[in-house]
Sequence to fold (180 residues):
Amino acid sequence: MTLAHTGVAADTTTGAATVEVNADAALREFVDGRRHALFRSAYLLCGDRDEADDLVQATLVKVVLGGRRKTRLDNIEAYARKTLVNTFIASRRRFWRRERAVGELPDRQSAPAPDTDTGLVVRAALRRLTPKQRAVVVLRYWEDLSVAETAELLGMRENTVKSHATRGLAALRAELREGS
Fold:
């Protein structure tokens, strides 16, 4: 790749163009290498493939723009994970997310068919958690982060992370007992 293709003017005295090209290459490599892992986490957070794909796209746009705005990200993985979770939580706060469009209104509520697949049951139970509880459970038990790492990533105290994890797991256990 030449500098003409990057839209960066070459500065032979400071080497600024080389640094920017290296940063772009690092961002491109990160996006290519971690997209699938971010999608898995996003899917566990929101429970819908299309919504997870949109969440990953929005996250990667923010990561790339943030990486270009700052000269260097110390930990692009942590920045991307935090951006993913914050974008998910922000999307749940929007009023229009609470409404569901349907083709026809049902005459009465029908009981959902029991799921036999454990994965479907767990994902359905995850969807019923609050967004913050879901974020804590996914980060702690899917991403295998420590309490301190999760607290730092979500910008909350460690005790808050512990209480969200405890309440989230209790709700999951209750849902799974009820579903079986």
Summary: Confidence is low (pLDDT under 50) at residues 1-16. The two ends are 57 Å apart (CA to CA).
